[in-house]
Amino acid sequence: MRTLISDTQLNRRGGRIVYRIVLTLVVVTFTLVFLGPLYWLVTGGLKSTREVLQNPPTLFPAQIHTDTYREAWSQLRMGRLLFNTLYYAFGALALQLVFDVAAAYALSKLRPVLGRAILGMMLATLMIPAAVLIVPQYLTVLDLPLLHVNLINTPWAIWLPTVANAFNIFLLKRFFDSIPEELMAAAAIDGATPLRALWSIVLPMSRPILGVVSIFAVVNVWKDFLWPMLVEPDPARQPLNIGINSLSLGVSQNVIIAALAIASAPTIVFFLIFQRNIMAGLTSGSLKG
Length: 289
Known about the structure:
Mean pLDDT: 84
Shape: flat
Strand content: under 5%
Distance between the termini: 31 Å
């Protein structure tokens, strides 16, 4: 918005007033749009069942019911579901860091034959809607090729489809490209193998982007709904999103809303804490130097 008004107009008293009014309106509007659903989520868990279902809805709870959150934690087994989600999320994170870093390092520094073609085909997969891949992925985990193992109702059914993440590989490769070739050449002269150079030079310099990839990996598993619902039919093994849906039969509406608020809280807090790391990691490899 700052670029839509010239410095001459901004130096005038009337121009400054109009600019500040418009800027305030835009900021407030976008804040309400983004925070509005979160507000309804949190306050819905504080209302009674009757108040949640009434139409038109109330803006503030007529009477605050904090016990709803305790009921949601116990009735929907939130502790167990939270443990399952963390188990799946950090398992997927570990596998992604191993395989995606290796792929990005090979494409960036080792430069195999047809490396650019391989990267182009990987990036092309980002254009394919995730829903289109559900059936082939399900058939794959139902009967794993070569091994002929059924991975349904095991953590591997969630972990394996997340390993080859084209977006994370692209982010890592872009960052690795910004690491000076002189450092790699000096390591090679000192007798370091490519694996030693990765461990001693590339990874210590890549902490910002590794943090970003880690956050994306955890959040993607945390928010996924359709895939875990297909491959984890056992309620005892399900993550938060699916577990709440499976155990919600016969549970009051306000208790379900409170459970959803509890499930959303960790990712929101996680983002608020690490938002600077996310922004820094996304731009850290954009310029070579």
